[in-house]
Design goal:
With about 110 residues, this protein is α+β, with helices and mostly antiparallel strands. Helices cover about 40% and strands about 35% of the residues.
C-alpha cells in the first residue's frame, strides 16, 4: 500500500514538473458535461477553466459521418496550454453539437519539449 502511494506521488510530481497531463482534456470535458449537455453551457464551463473555444471546421470524415446520419452538426475546438518545467502541454478538446446539444467530444494532449 505504501509503495503504491509513493509511486502515485512520484508520478504526480513528475507530471507536474515535466508537463505530462495525459488525461486532463478528457477529464475536463467530462466534468464540464456532468450537469448539462447544452453546448453554450459546456463551452462557458471550459472557458471558465482556462480554455479558449471557437467553432471550427470538421474534417472530411467527421462531416461525412454526420451527413450520413442526416444531422447538421457543429464542431467546436477548445485549447489551453499548461507549462511544466521542461515541457509545455497543449490541450485540445473537440466538441460536436447538434441543435445546441452536445453529442460527443474527445480530448488530446500534444506535449512540446525542447
Amino acid at each position: 500500500m505504501i509503495k503504491k502511494i509513493k509511486k502515485s506521488a512520484i508520478i504526480f510530481l513528475l507530471t507536474t514538473l515535466f508537463g505530462c497531463s495525459t488525461n486532463q482534456p478528457a477529464n475536463d470535458f467530462n466534468n464540464a458535461k456532468k450537469n448539462s449537455s447544452n453546448t453554450k453551457i459546456l463551452l462557458s464551463k471550459l472557458e471558465a477553466s482556462g480554455y479558449s473555444c471557437a467553432e471550427s471546421e470538421m474534417k472530411e470524415n467527421e462531416a461525412r459521418y454526420f451527413s450520413q446520419k442526416s444531422q447538421e452538426a457543429k464542431k467546436y475546438t477548445c485549447t489551453k496550454s499548461k507549462s511544466g518545467i521542461l515541457c509545455v502541454d497543449y490541450l485540445f478538446i473537440d466538441i460536436f453539437s447538434v441543435k445546441n446539444k452536445v453529442i460527443g467530444g474527445n480530448g488530446q494532449v500534444a506535449p512540446q519539449c525542447p
